[in-house]
Amino acid sequence: INFQPTSFVTSAADIRQLPADEGVEIAFAGRSNAGKSSALNTLTRQKSLARTSKTPGRTQLINVFEVAPGQRLIDLPGYGYAKVPLAVKEKWQRALSEYLQKRQSLKGLVVLMDIRHPYRDVDQELLHWATASAIPVLILLTKADKLKPGARKNTLLKAREAALVFGGDVHVEAFSSLTKIGLAQVEAHLSRWLND
Ligand code: GTP
Ligand code: MG
Questions:
Q1: CB 3.0-4.6 Å disulfide test: which of 34, 60, 67, 144 passes with 112?
Q2: What is the pLDDT of residues 94-135, one digit of tens each?
Q3: Which pLDDT tens digit goes with each residue over 170-184?
Q4: Where is the EngB-type G domain (predicted)?
Q5: Could you tell me if the ipTM is greater than 0.85?
Q6: CA of 56 to the centre of ligand 1 (A)
Q7: How far away, in angstroms, is 40 Cα from ligand 2 center?
Q8: Which residues pair with 1 in a beta bridge?
Q9: All domains in the chain, ordered by first residue
Q10: Pairing status of strand 137-142 against strand 71-75
Q11: 130 neighbors 163 (Cβ within 8 angstroms)
Q12: How far does residue 3's CA lie from ligand 2's centre (Å)?
């Protein structure tokens, strides 16, 4: 699949505002600042399709993109940002778990975690929800350029071992939007999800 023609469809404040639950959808989730929007831009070879920011919590809305008719990529708001009020966090966690459990068109979840501190509490919670709902998961250890090759490889192997705890269909790759490490693997994985 060629991801380059991907275009913006809509921003939703709530999962109820998402497009009709038809076709195939892949969602990108992760802590604030993990690199979700950057990964979407890298995948689609577009500089500013998804808004990126040095300020965590930039993506507050659910942004919907279309690769082709009936094939969507979803940029979910980042979680775990300390400055967000607890009530907002709890509301978002409920919405996220509802989305994962009810969205029929959701065929895969990309979970992005900074390679320097993977598997934080909320990441683990998300992974449990996803595997409990039988949603295939691709974990991306982002900003892989921040580690030297040896440390990167080590971290990847450990992260793959840690992923076994969640059971289900969970794959782990190292990824960098900066150096394109792991890009080919991500493309192959997502293409499979969209074509199945
Ligand atoms: P929210 O929308 O706030 O949830 O953040 P996000 O997950 O969309 O992160 P975003 O893509 O906006 O990136 C956050 C910061 O990390 C930005 O300053 C990016 O430039 C930086 N960043 C993203 N990907 C990489 C990468 O592969 N390598 C490096 N070194 N920095 C990256
Ligand atoms: Mg973002």
A1: 34
A2: 888 888 889 999 999 999 999 999 999 989 999 999 999 999
A3: 999 999 999 999 999
A4: 22-196
A5: yes
A6: 9
A7: 9
A8: none
A9: 7-195 (3.40.50.300)
A10: unpaired
A11: no
A12: 18
Give the ligand 1 atom nearest the CA of 56.
Answer: 3
Residue nearest to atom 24 of ligand 1 (CA): 35
Closest listed residue to residue 40, CA positions, set 69, 74, 71: 74
Distance, in Å, from the CA atom of 85 to the CA atom of 100, rounded to the nearest integer, reads: 23
Q: Could you report the per-residue pLDDT of 30-47, keeping only the tens digit for each?
A: 998 999 999 999 999 999
Q: What's the distance, Cα to Cα, between the start and end of the chain in Å?
A: 12
What's the rounded Cα separation, in Å, for the pair 37 and 159?
22
Task: Please state the φ and ψ torsions of residue 92, each to the nearest 5 degrees.
Answer: -65, -40
DSSP for 22-67, please give it.
-SEEEEEEEBTTSSHHHHHHHHHT-SSSS---SSTT---SEEEEEE
The one-letter amino acid code at 106 reads L
List pocket residues of ligand 1, CB cut-off 6 Å: 30, 32-38, 52-54, 56-59, 78, 142-143, 145-146, 176-178
The pTM of the full predicted model, rounded to 2 decimals, is 0.95
Q: What is the pLDDT of residue 15?
A: 85
**What does DSSP assign to residue 155?**
H
Q: For residue 117, which of 31, 194, 42, 184 has the smallest C-alpha distance?
A: 31
User: How far lies 78's CA from each of 27, 33, 62, 139, in Å?
Assistant: 12, 7, 10, 15
Query: How far, in Å, CA of 99 to CA of 105, rounded?
Result: 10
